[in-house]
Amino acid sequence: MAEIKKETPRWREWVSEKLNPAQPSIASLEPFASPETIVDYEQAYREIEIIHRAVKMVISACVDTPLKITGSGPAKKVNKLLNIRPNPYEDRVRFFRRALLDFHLDGNAFFYYDGNDIYLLPANDVEVVPDPHTFVNHYNYMISNQQSNDYFGYRKETRKSSAITFEPHEIIHVTSENTSSIFRGTSKLKPLLRLIELYYYMINFQRQFFKNNAIPGFVLTTDNILSKRVKERLLEGWRNSYTTIFDNARHPAILDGGLKIDQFSQVKFQELDFENSIERIQQDMAKAIGVPYVLLKSGNNANIDANQKLFYQHTVMPILNQFCSAFMLFFNNDVEVKPDKLTIPALRPDERTQSIYYSTLVNTGIITPNEARAGLGFPLLNGEDSIRVPQNITGSATDATQGGRPPTEESENQIEEGTSDEG
């Protein structure tokens, strides 16, 4: 398999003279761009249905859109890597689904190119080391959090010095926005952290009362005066017997010593459902991820086509453009990589409207029939590369002396009288 030889572009020939003068200061402020902790985001993706579904929709839409690769040089090789088989061990769909999931949870996607194939590095284990002169010095694949067996079979942790180093010309780095670093992106779910925390609080509260069938808001009253020790023992006994979730639910209580239950809260059990509040949080989560909430609901939605178009234009296409831009920067051999919009039904114009549009352009002599066929995706035909002259102006278009209003009997008589007068 032929290896793609990366030619040095012209702008790199004078890069030593056009370096960023602020780069040394930028690199000194951030010596290492280390991965963030994404445990909360991974847990939210696994457990919160609306987040899992919304992220999965974005990933599926991105993977289902093929990339249109044009240009000279290794365009055919790049097309094979990005649209057919990136490496001998993974198919395209599986490969890019993992990359897009890393992009959402970690905010980064790291591809390793060995000259023939592309492999994906786990984004949360890659550290970016800035360079004081150019931009990135190298990438470290961190294995310090992994364990291995020593000679005697005991588990031991590896050190940072044993990290695998990759050069900048070996890594394709796709990064999302980050307000605190220009070398590493941040998780797409980070803006949802407050909503995720609130969602868990509401679900856990609802789950507790649903399981226990508890009635919130009551106090124990008595006419007797209790000492501090008796109060503490009484409260401790109630905590041990009646506040353990699930174990002692609906356990009967025996009141003695003049104790009575006085309910001071009028909240009913059915009012603890939080249905409206939970749905509002789910809507905010879906909007933050970039998925219209109407696409996640079932039922008859009259404006679903407009929302699908909005979803692709403002969520899917920007993500694909980020990946395509990174690929074009890496394969700097005049290769152009763009998402193929014509394969997306939501972005494809209506066929009837499009056919009328091209027919009008052809019949009015603006474009050739082959140009219209190319716009509609049909093969070209021989002899259809000339402009068609509209039939209603054929005479005047071909000969300026022809055309105009046909002569009448009155006009002919006037012409004859004029000629006779002149005679």
- In percent, how helical is the residue content? 40-55%
- The secondary-structure class comes to alpha+beta
How much of the sequence lies in strands comes to: 5-15%
Biggest β-sheet: count, sense, barrel? 3 strands, antiparallel
Q: State the end-to-end distance.
A: 91 Å
Radius of gyration using CA atoms only: 35 Å
* Low confidence ranges: none
How many strands in all? 12
Our count of helices gives: 13
Strands side by side in the biggest sheet: 3-2-9
The gross shape turns out to be flat
Mean residue pLDDT: 79
Please write the string of helix (H) and strand (E) elements. HHHEHHEEEEEEEEHEHEHHEHHHH
What layout of secondary structure does this protein have?
Elements: H1 23-29, H2 39-47, H3 49-63, E1 67-71, H4 75-83, H5 92-105, E2 108-113, E3 118-121, E4 126-130, E5 136-141, E6 147-149, E7 155-157, E8 164-166, E9 171-175, H6 193-212, E10 218-221, H7 228-242, E11 260-263, H8 275-289, H9 304-330, E12 335-339, H10 351-363, H11 369-376, H12 394-398, H13 409-422
Antiparallel strand pairs: 1-12, 2-3, 2-9, 4-5, 5-8, 6-7, 10-11
In short:
The chain is α+β, with helices and mostly antiparallel strands. The chain has helices spanning 23-29, 39-47, 49-63, 75-83, 92-105, 193-212, 228-242, 275-289, 304-330, 351-363, 369-376, 394-398, 409-422, and strands at 67-71, 108-113, 118-121, 126-130, 136-141, 147-149, 155-157, 164-166, 171-175, 218-221, 260-263, 335-339.
Distinctive features:
13 helices; 423 residues; single chain
Structure description:
The protein has helices at 23-29, 39-47, 49-63, 75-83, 92-105, 193-212, 228-242, 275-289, 304-330, 351-363, 369-376, 394-398, 409-422; strands at 67-71, 108-113, 118-121, 126-130, 136-141, 147-149, 155-157, 164-166, 171-175, 218-221, 260-263, 335-339. It has 423 residues and is an alpha+beta fold. A three-stranded antiparallel β-sheet has the order 3-2-9. Strands 4-5-8 form a three-stranded antiparallel β-sheet, with no helix packed on it. A hairpin with a 5-residue loop joins strand 4 and strand 5 (136-141). The longest helix is centred in the C-terminal third of the chain and has 27 residues, at 304-330. The protein is flat and about 130 Å long. The relative contact order is 0.11.
